[in-house]
From TrEMBL:
The active site is at residues 168, 449. It comes from the Eukaryota. It comes from Emericellopsis atlantica. GO terms for cellular component: peroxisomal matrix. Pathway: Carbohydrate metabolism; glyoxylate cycle; (S)-malate from isocitrate: step 2/2. Residues 10-72 form the Malate synthase N-terminal domain. This is Malate synthase.
Length: 542
């Protein structure tokens, strides 16, 4: 049998390793990562190549439809996903947030049912953020995460059961360049999943939960199959019964919406349902059909959850999940508390309340909040309209969604200069924060993260590409877009703190809004800006 030392041949760590990281980057954990990489990276790369081929097909005007080759899965009424796992039966309000220590403690102390610790949309994947995030989650599962920051003590509450922890690793497209295996960077997904699983799987069971995950940004059921294979190998490796892991899949790409049944089917013994990742979903619709002028959308504020394509996606997701006995989770309203303006705050909170009411009435089993102060509103709405732990029994047999419904871009609204400026401010503001290592920021009283910023970026690209007209009759062309960008960037740079990164953000953004270059993701475009690789150190000699 191979020894840990021999497995670690070819495994290098290029990121800075502090004393506090050593409990995470153990030889055994790194050997497990190497096994995951060697077993699954070739398939991951093939699936990413498949995404590129699919894009070329969409660019030729081929529209997606339900897959003929998997009709037997959709039409078979007999199969079900796994029954809800311990700690996941009632998940009516889930808080989400990045994994810095303060946020972890605050999230676990919130009045919610679960906490999605986010290594994805709300985290900038600096090495420091990713590895410290693992330390914080390790400590959280062992209930040893208390700490002091200045005069303030952050302590886990003991007056009630803490929310169930669910971890969202990065998507399949992202590399983690600070660890290489046989000369290749490891996948961000395998790194995040692997370290969390290796160190916490049994601990989570001990506290009455399990190793639970949210799985982001998938584009097909084959990508779900890859996760399922990863789960099986991981459980076998530590002799944990298969089916202990659970994964809730974010349906947040338009192509995945055509494969909801198939995605649950692939993961079925590990499935804990689907979630409406609404922001990435809007991003994906714009991105995938960016070369098709029929998919041009109005100002971002007009693309609400009730426009036809969003409404169809929500209904299909709930119907599909409940037919298969798994949770249909709602998503994130972007409003956050506004501290110094009661009237504005009341309006924002009414917006959150209306969103949660729509979700519970539609049949969702739970929802997301971005901030602890929103938990009460979401709880009140769900408690009132969902007296049972979930509403898996709401079958939505009334719903009939066709491919045309999912692609119905009949969205009322116009494109305005104000909408363009808002998108520019969001894109610049978010990118500026991200290159400083901050993955989620409030901008104009809305939560902005990697998904919401992508909507803004992609709209700007699409509007310039297709030379749309604004409500007051201006044609959006490259010169106009770049003039407004310069105005916004100069203003933000002048107002921002000394040493801000708006100039850098603007240089990157200029290349993304003229309808020419289009990076696959802002996060892959900017990743080298936050990568700090030192000379490789062999994992066996850390
Ligand atoms: C599209 C998607 O993927 S949605 C999912 C990903 N996005 C998210 O998870 C959003 C997470 N939310 C956040 O990061 C933050 O709420 C922000 C950036 C939007 C706003 O943060 P702030 O401006 O710091 O908010 P604010 O000052 O009101 O925070 C008050 C307190 O609540 C805490 N807090 C705010 N949001 C959260 C959260 N999501 N989880 C835990 N604690 C939180 C803050 O740490 C702060 O704590 P302190 O009093 O101990 O210092
Ligand atoms: O991850 C959630 C989203 O809305 O995107
Ligand atoms: Mg998302």
């Amino acid at each position: 049998m191979a020894t840990t030392d021999s497995i670690l041949q070819g495994v290098n760590v290029l990121g800075k390793v502090d004393e506090s990281h050593r409990k995470i980057l153990t030889p055994d954990a790194l050997a497990f990562l190497a096994l995951l990489h060697r077993s699954f990276n070739p398939t991951r790369k093939a699936l990413l190549e498949r995404r590129r081929l699919r894009q070329a097909e969409l660019d030729r005007g081929v529209l997606p439809t339900f897959l003929p080759e998997t009709r037997h899965i959709r039409e078979n009424d007999a199969w079900r996903g796994a029954p809800p796992a311990p700690g996941l039966v009632d998940r009516r309000v889930e808080i989400t947030g990045p994994t810095d220590r303060k946020m972890v403690v605050n999230a676990l102390n919130s009045d919610v049912w679960t906490y999605m610790a986010d290594l994805e949309d709300s985290s900038a994947p600096t090495w420091e953020n990713m590895i410290n995030g693992q330390v914080n989650l390790y400590d959280a599962n062992r209930r040893q995460v208390d700490f002091k920051q200045g005069p303030k003590e952050y302590k886990l509450r003991t007056d009630r059961k803490l929310p169930t922890l669910i971890v969202r690793p990065r998507g399949w497209h992202l590399d983690e360049k600070h660890v290489t295996v046989d000369g290749e960077p490891i996948s961000g997904s395998l790194f995040d999943f692997g370290l969390y699983f290796f160190h916490n799987a049994f601990e989570t069971v001990k506290i009455g939960q399990g190793p639970y995950f949210y799985l982001p940004k998938m584009e097909s059921h084959l990508e779900a199959r890859l996760w399922n294979d990863v789960f099986n190998l991981a459980q076998d490796y530590i002799s944990m019964p298969r089916g202990t892991i659970r994964g809730t899949v974010l349906i947040e790409t338009i192509l995945a919406a055509f494969e909801m049944d198939e995605i649950i089917y692939e993961l079925r013994d590990h499935s804990s349902g689907l979630n409406c990742g609404r922001w990435d979903y809007i991003f994906s619709v714009i991105k995938k059909f960016r070369n098709n002028k029929d998919f041009v959308l109005p100002d971002r504020s007009a693309v609400t959850m009730t426009v036809p394509f969003m409404d169809a996606y929500v209904k299909l997701l709930i119907q599909t999940c409940h037919r298969r006995g798994v949770h249909a989770m709602g998503g994130m309203a972007a409003q956050i508390p506004i501290k110094d303006d009661k009237a504005a705050n009341d309006k924002a909170m009414d917006g959150v309340r209306a969103d949660k009411l729509r979700e519970v009435r539609a049949g969702h089993d739970g929802t997301w909040v971005a901030h602890p102060a929103l938990a009460t509103i979401a709880t009140e709405v769900f408690n009132k309209h969902m007296p049972t732990p979930n509403q898996l029994f709401v079958r939505r047999e009334d719903v009939q969604i066709s491919p045309n419904d999912l692609l119905n871009m009949n969205v009322p609204g116009v494109i305005t200069e104000d909408g363009i400026r808002k998108n520019l401010n969001i894109g610049l503001g978010y990118m500026e924060a991200w290159v400083r290592g901050v993955g989620c920021v409030p901008i104009n009283f809305l939560m902005e993260d990697a998904a919401t910023a992508e909507v803004s970026r992609s709209q700007l690209w699409q509007w310039t590409k297709h030379g749309v007209s604004t409500a007051d009759g201006r044609t959006v062309d490259k010169a106009y877009a770049l003039r407004l960008l310069k105005e916004c960037a100069d203003e933000l740079a002048a107002k921002g703190p000394k040493g801000n990164k708006f100039k850098l953000a603007s240089q990157y953004f200029a290349g993304q809004i003229t309808g020419e270059d289009y990076a696959d993701f802002l996060t892959t475009l900017l990743y080298d800006e936050i990568t700090q690789v030192g000379s490789p150190r062999s994992a066996s000699k850390l």
